[in-house]
Amino acid sequence: MTNQVENQNVTDQIENDLPNMSRRSFFKKTVLGGGAAILTGGAALGASKVSLEGSTNTPGIDIDETIFKPKDQRDVMLCHATSPYLSKVKNPERAEQYARLWKKDFNFNDAIQTFENRDHFDNNKVGYNQADRAIGHAAWYPLVVAKSRSSAFTQPNTPMHSWDQTDVHEEQFDWGSGKRAADMIRSTARLFGAVRVGIAKFDKRFVYDPLYDIVDERTLSWEKDFPFEPKSVIVIATPMDYDNVATAPSWTSEGSTGNGYSDMGKIACQVAKFIRGCGYNAVGAGNDLANSVAYAILAGLGEGGRNGSCIMPGVGPRVRLCKVFTNIDFEEAYDQPHTWGIREFCKSCMKCADACPSGAISKDVEPSYLPTYEFNDEPGYTWNNHVGIHKWHSDAKRCFNFWMDNDTSCLNCVASCTFNEPDYWHHWFIMSVSPMMPKFMHSLMSEAHPAFGYGGQSRTPIPAKVEKFWKSGENMRTNTSMKNNIGTAG
Fold first, then answer.
1. pTM of structure
2. Is 52 helix (H, G, I), strand (E, B) or coil?
């Protein structure tokens, strides 16, 4: 076999490759904080169920009305970069400014033309060999066959997410109640592969307005072009494989990214078709139509984290989000924003920012309404950010630049997250007591995460993690431990 990876003890290698933190240091801190932790944890035990359900005592999304306005899709990073017209005709100064400030010959649209399609690999380099490239291409293939991969780049109205409503059944099914409708739709999404489903009221503030068609290079409006007036948005989370995500930022991890998007396309398409079969309008969406993270927060699925993802109890940020827009009114059954103390935890934890190869993630302790990253004071430089939302603003241009240089997308901020853990009971217990822990314990928990073998991402791929993934199917024929069924159960 060509360039077989050198045989090694994976467990020992992973430990050697973890960030510099000795277990002695960890246990010393545990002794110091142990008394408080036990008392707090004991008090939390009885309230753990309530804690896991979260609290609705949260604004959900905090906005500054004086500077906030809906996001123009043409200013979304992937939309702008994919469109030759937007990048080279309408706003060429954006690439020129980026190249000047970072002293680099770089153009957003030129870079994306050969992204992940260059005919090269290095069979001597773990994480960048022929198999690593092949698994990424295979993961995206369902969307390619369905001629819908552009949905990942914010293209609306693809074949999988068609706006055509001619198949809406003439007879409307009587759900009986909004709750019954919600339960039946969640059950349908679960059957098709969803790990979480939430339902929010349609909120014009968090849709892209105007919309933009990057294929035909034209703007679209909700009032004139969208086929119906939406009342609700169903937000669906599909999981990504824990061991594959851990290989980031290698080409291997593109397997999780591409498969996540393929699942997004499939599930949103199926749920929308189910709803139309029941006599109601429905359109599926991937990265198009609206900010998926904002709607996931509105639908009570999780909280906005430092890394810009929606972090959910049990799976953390290790999910992909799709949406279904419908004219069903769920009446009293809409979900509400919840808090589990995740956003507060992010103030003490810098794991994703430390692991980010491009340095795009904010290291500010507190979130803000405006970007604070380098060159934020340069006129026009923050065009990609949605200002007026109280959050940690990342520089998506730098993130995108690293993708192009690495020739694959990156999952380091997901893999390194303290809430990204296999779905075991003790992680759920820690999740339940986290909101009641004093802040110094948040820092300790963040350090403990890599000490016990989770996260611990490097800015370059860790060979042992790549090899661990490629061995993860070893016992699937019998799989008595169910060790491969991780991160998918509720």
1. 0.86
2. helix
Maximum separation of any 2 CA atoms in the chain, in Å? 68
d(CA 78, CA 396): 9
β-pair partners for 291: none
Q: What is the pLDDT of residues 272-327, one digit of tens each?
A: 999 999 999 999 999 999 999 999 999 999 999 999 999 998 889 999 999 999 99
Q: Which two tokens stand for residue 344?
A: 């507060």
Q: How far apart are CA 140 and CA 150, in angstroms?
A: 11
Taking a C-beta distance cutoff of 8 angstroms, is the pair 80, 214 a contact? no
Look at phi and psi of residue 329 and say left if phi exceeds 0, alpha if psi is from -120 to 50, else beta: beta
Predicted confidence (pLDDT) per residue in 373-392, tens digit: 999 999 999 999 999 999 99
pLDDT tens for each residue of 83-116: 999 999 999 999 999 999 999 999 999 999 988 8
Per the listing, tokens 């991780």 go with 486
DSSP output for 323-386: EEEE----GGG-----B-SHHHHHHH--HHHHH-TT--S---SS-BSS--STTTTSTTTTTTS-
Of the candidates 283, 281, 307, 282, the residue with the CA atom closest to the CA atom of residue 293? 307
pLDDT value of position 376: 97
Question: According to the model, what pLDDT value does residue 424 have?
Answer: 60
Amino acid letter at 60? G
How far apart CA 14 and CA 487 sit, in angstroms, is: 20
Token duo for residue 131: 């198999």
Q: What is the CA radius of gyration of the chain?
A: 22
3-state secondary structure 242-284: HHHHCCCCCHHHHHHHHHHHHHHHHHHHHHHHHHHHCCCCEEE
- How many other C-beta atoms are found inside a 10 Å radius of the C-beta of residue 362? 24
Token digits of residue 335:
């979900």
* Model pLDDT for residues 155-207, shown as the tens digit of each residue: 999 999 999 999 999 999 999 999 999 999 999 999 999 999 999 999 999 99
